[in-house]
Amino acid sequence: MTSSAHLKELGEFLKARRAELSPRTVGLPDSGAPRRVAGLRREEVAQLASISTDYYTRLEQGRMQPSAPVLQTLVRVLHLADDQREYLFELAGRMPTRSRGKVRQKVQPQLRRLLDLTATPAIVLGRRMDILAWNALGAALVTDFGTVPEKERNYVRLLFTDPALRKLYPDWEKVARTAVAQLRREAAKYPEDPRLTSLVGELSVRDEDFRTWWASHEVATLGVGTKVLQHPLVGELTLDWDTLTASTDSDQQLVIWTAEPGSPSYDGLRILASRAADHHRAPTTP
After folding, report:
1. What residues contact residue 145 under an 8 Å CB cut-off, 6+ apart?
2. To pair with 238 at 20 to 30 A between CA atoms, which of 104, 166, 167, 182?
3. Contact 259/269 with Cβ under 8 angstroms?
């Protein structure tokens, strides 16, 4: 059976998605009269899903666990995307459960070796999007993770607290908002994780944007995409990123950045790699 924390989050997620829809969007008549709340009313969602208003109300209040058929109907009624559908089912306990993962993660040896062999920027993300490992080019591209205290090595935290990362991404707001949605997706796996709770609490207090985006209950998964970076040493880079999940630990993901061969960004990565190698070979002053 799913936990009360999961059910509470499920209710908040349903509310947030309901608020985004209008009667016209779902094919209901719209009188044009002002509404007390944004989006659809509870009774309208219940009507469309062919369930009682009382049943749906209890779902939003986190008081009951919905069945799989009801969830599938709500996916259709609320026009949920694939990521949102998966998130909804996991919150409702209709997917394989995961351990809470209290033990501190260590990078899988296979991923560590792959990092060392990878001739492109790469990092390993763990639970809560913690940064578990990186290669020299990954540090040269993003930031010197080795100078960040281990407890603070979290990708989302760095996005909101490190001024250098805000400058690194010209479209910082889009990047940061997507990262919050990815963290929200991660939160469904471990809703009672004290470190996750602490991270969300800290960032909610420190940053109004994080607080607003977290409350929107948007979700996204780590997958593939393209990012534009304004690197202080090599200038603008347009890089494709991809995510590989470790077969031995699905909570560890290798994220790599690549550029189209022959492109200015490809040349920029080669220059950055050369500088990173020179820095690595330079003698260290005691």
Report:
1. 123, 131, 134, 138, 139, 153
2. 182
3. yes
Fold of 109-281: Beta-Lactamase (3.30.450)
Cα distances from 248 to residues 125, 229, 244, in angstroms, run 14, 32, 12
Distance CA 73, CA 181 (A): 23
Tens digit of pLDDT at every position of the chain (286 positions): 568 889 999 999 999 999 998 888 888 777 666 677 778 999 999 999 999 999 999 999 999 999 989 999 999 999 998 889 989 998 998 864 444 445 577 888 888 888 888 889 999 999 999 999 999 999 999 999 999 999 999 999 999 999 999 999 999 999 999 999 999 988 888 777 888 999 999 999 999 999 999 999 999 988 889 999 999 999 999 999 999 888 778 889 999 999 999 999 999 999 999 987 766 544 433 3
Q: How far is CA 89 from CA 2, 160, 163, 184, 202, in A?
A: 11, 30, 37, 14, 28
Q: Which CATH architecture has domain 4-91?
A: Orthogonal Bundle (1.10)
Chain position carrying tokens 């940061």: 176
Decide whether 4-91 matches 109-281 in CATH topology: no
Q: How far apart are CA 61 and CA 105, in angstroms?
A: 34
pTM: predicted TM-score of the whole model, two decimal places: 0.76
